[in-house]
Fold this protein.
Amino acid sequence: MSMHYFANPTRFTRLAERIQPWAEGLAGVLLVVGLYLALVEAPADYQQGDTVRIMFVHVPSAWMAMFCYSFLAVASAIALIWKHPLADLAAKASAPIGAGFTFLALVTGSLWGKPMWGTWWVWDARLTSVLILFFLYLGYMALWQAIEDGQKAAKAAAVLALVGAVNVPIIKFSVDWWNTLHQPASVLRMDGPAIHPSMLWPLLIMALAFKAYFVALLLVRMRMELNLRRIRALQLAERTT
Amino acid sequence: MGQFFEMGGYAGYVWPAFVIVLVVMAVLWVASRRGCRNSEHTLAALRKNRQQQGIDAQ
Amino acid sequence: MKPFMAVIARDLHLAVRQGGATFLALVFFLLTVTLFPLGIGPEPAILARIAPGVLWVAALLAAMLSLDRLFQADFEDGSLEQLTLSGLPLGAIVLAKTIAHWLTTGLPLLLAAPILAVLLNMDSEGFAALLLTMLIGTPALSLIGAIGAALTLTVRRGGVLLSLLVLPLYIPVLIFGVSAIDAAVHGLNAKPHVLLLTALTLAAIPLCPWAAAAAVKLSLE
């Protein structure tokens, strides 16, 4: 069953409709369990107190921000190289999800930083990298919007995604570089202290919950993009007849 | 119970963080679902229109 | 080799004939640098501290604002398409045009930078690093910018979108460029920063024209 098996949109839609309820259910369950563990079960930290609970949404959001961009880049590569007809839709559909998690990583990072370091924003390596990643997402989405021809927009966005993907490690490296130059010896880590097992479970479950949510949301958005593409095709046909 | 809401004095940071996460996820979810449903309706209407005009086979 | 040089010569001719672009880039560079003392205050110690960053940011913005003339005019009057029929591969055409762009934008900025550094009271220790990093870094700005210019070719009023696409990609160049000058000013070793910057530019030379050509091809279809 090769990748092109799902190139058929109808087959994809049928599969998506079957998977979606499971993904939704899984996301819901994991979210409830994760939130309970994060807010109730996990112990407060010795130094950070209850603010360490923010880590349970901040770190998974940051992970999702990175994961979504990787997904977007891989889908774009598949679209450009193998010309899989659904790959560019997958990339387009995932972008707002990634941007959303990036935004959440920034906001929760800010809320975590204020009680810890006294300022609403701190230019540490991770937050700065996430901010730049946010710009990459916005640029990608803006490019899709700006180019009128759907097929050209898809290809241009794919090129941009790959250029961005190549740059993400470079940007991350350069920001880390910049940060160590300007940071005093004590490293401000937003990970918090070393992960204790009672911390690990809420973190992993929240991360999985976010992933399941991603799958469910991606399927919805892909179906929507597929419909929009068909609508545009029909409207184009009507204009030329 | 009070401890839970107080969050050791950090309630003003912890709760907004969790709330905004849930709000953003919910808004994205609702907007995407609505967008998908709208697109399905538009597509169905377009197809019905074409069928009535006898454009598409069957 | 001849057709490649011919494209560079052609673009240089057009730039000279139109005249405005280099002048505008330089004026913008000067103006932007001038805004900082006006905004922050003329205290020499503060200006000296921020000088490397201000110079690099201003040069970066000036380079970015000049990007739309890389492809736009040729695209609109059909000469871009003509060039592709010349037999030279599109990647080579893009590289040639990028070189011409650098000669008319990056190079003048590089030459103007030391003068503006004096205005900002930059430490004399930093001048060599300033020139070196600009020499190595401004080509990277043209190369990376070419990708953005190519992607936004068919977008009406694509200037702001171009900025959004290109500025995040410029950040590593900015970081390594400024940190090299800062290192030199503080008497530290600037070499690692310069080497990283060099690696960026060297990697950009084959990769950026390739990506930009793919984007140009889309617009020509």
